[in-house]
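Slide 14.
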Amino acid sequence: MPLSIRAAEQLATTTKTPPMWEANTPRWTITLLPWVQVKAGVYRINRASGSPKVIQGHDAGEALPESFTPYDEKPREITLNTVQTVLKIHTRVPDLYNQPHDQLREQLRISVEAVKEEKERQIFNNPDYGLLHVCAKDQRLKAKGAPTPDDLDNMLAKVWKRPGFFAAHPQAIAAFGRECTSRGVTPESVEMFGVPFMSWRGVPIVPSDKLPITKRKSAFVLMRVGEAEQGVVGLHQAELGTPELQSLAVRHMGIDSNGVSSYLVTCYYSIAVLVDDALAVLEGVEV
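Slide 15: predicted structure.
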């Protein structure tokens, strides 16, 4: 009787992957946002509170017209927020079970990814600074069903000065695609980072599952980005952490009496809308 396959497997070495975490996403919104260094942890948005009155032309011998622009005397200040988690791992795990994969490194990697996922979720949903909540009233639109080309055109009319990108839940994007198909319209695609994205009027539509779906309704977001464009910017402390973990700090908190090591993973960040017309939200789209 020959050696059985099952018995032979006991002498074989299996090839093991690093741990795969299904909840990990590309987080395109974080990637596409310009990030501004906030050294002191506070970002002040100075705005002009009116338009300058300028007289066009004057007669010879008359005094030159005078003009000035008033500034907002109580500008909004945004403080960097925090996402934190504590990783716990028994010391015997990396001591005894560290081949072929570094156990501590893999645990930290997944913890860092979880912090980044929460960071993107808060960018949209935080009640104090999330984009779905801080959008100006006159920059909000109401959908009457599935998202349509007309809806996105109306958003572009709100953010018409160099629109950067749309963001929507993948199911909302699929609903927009179906609506386009029913109207005989084919949205173009654009390539970024080697990945094709659906677009509308040349503006990419970026998927993010952090935009919530409630009772089969969600939202589309459109933003202009960058300080130079008076758009939406991310805020962080670039000098914190390492090039691989920018704006992230990992600190060893010690070992308890049971031999369990604790590591504090912290991310400091926020987001700012510099002027109201940099952001538009289409609410209540059916998916």
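Speaker note: The chain has one domain: 28-51+73-286.
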